[in-house]
Design brief:
Blueprint (H helix, E strand, L loop, with lengths): L2 H5 L15 H14 L12 H8 L3 H13 L3 E4 L3 E4 L18 H25 L2 H20 L4 H14 L3 H10 L19 H19 L3 H25 L8
Antiparallel strand pairs: 1-2
Helix pairs in contact: 2-4, 3-4, 5-7, 5-9, 5-10, 6-7, 6-9, 7-8, 9-10
């Protein structure tokens, strides 16, 4: 995953990408619409990952997460060696977490509490089970964030990719499913207020990135407790910052 692909933003024909809509949501929403409107029928094969990457001008990571979203909605299925096919063309019931109100700090805290409960154990399992390739994937995601911080570009897509790489390293697919279900809602700073131009301060991002480094290092060293503790520090610290804002009555700044 290159920093160039992470930075790309797509605005499809007749529409503009708003600050509230993530790249993953943009792609998954468009594919979902094509399925529900009958432009892709049951049994049809979706374009290949490479074709979708070119079509939407996004990274492979974004395409994979968009497809994962549709899989969890039971709209598509992957067939080994054949590709991804339309499985259902009926709209699913409202997805879990779809009613979150990110204008309310309490909603952000609720998600951070849930993530802490799941991701602390994911980090520990990743430390115990990760393969060399999975360790490398975590390191590459960490470096992608560094590149974006240096370029002054948004990091939330790369941040999500880092956490998904840790979920993959558990070698338990349910951890990835959980994070994919949340989507970019798991990264509160990705959910900007409509029309707002909010930039996360670089010193804050560097602090978060140092926390990421400690998590990655512990997983690399196969230190389960250190990995669990580092993830706890990362997510509990975010909760504390938002609780402080809740007490002060300030609005969310989407910096976590």
């Amino acid at each position: 995953m290159s920093s160039e692909t992470v930075r790309t933003r797509w605005t499809g024909p007749g529409r503009q990408r708003s600050g509230r809509v993530s790249l993953v949501a943009t792609v998954s929403n468009d594919l979902r619409r094509r399925i529900l409107e009958g432009r892709l029928n049951i049994g049809d094969r979706l374009p290949s990952e490479a074709e979708l990457t070119r079509q939407y001008s996004v990274s492979r990571t974004v395409v994979r997460e968009a497809i994962a979203t549709l899989r969890y909605e039971n709209l598509v299925e992957a067939r080994q060696g054949a590709g991804v096919f339309v499985r259902n063309n009926q709209p699913a019931n409202a997805a879990p977490f779809s009613q979150l109100d990110y204008a309310r700090i309490s909603s952000i805290i609720e998600i951070l509490e849930l993530r802490a409960a799941v991701e602390m154990e994911a980090a520990a399992l990743a430390a115990a089970r990760r393969s060399p390739a999975q360790e490398e994937a975590i390191a590459e995601c960490y470096e992608d964030i560094n590149t974006l911080i240096g370029a002054g570009e948004p990091t939330h897509d790369a941040d999500m990719a880092f956490h998904l790489a840790i979920a993959d390293a558990t070698n338990n697919p349910r951890f990835r499913e959980f994070l994919a279900l949340l989507g970019l809602d798991a990264i509160p700073r990705a959910m900007l207020r409509p029309g707002a131009d909010i930039r996360t301060p670089k010193d804050y991002l560097l602090k978060i990135q140092d926390e990421h480094r400690q998590i990655a290092d512990a997983i690399s060293l196969r230190d389960e407790q250190a990995a669990r503790d580092a993830m706890r520090t990362h997510l509990i610290g975010s909760q504390q910052r938002y609780r402080a804002r809740l007490r002060s009555g300030s609005a969310p700044e989407r910096n976590t």
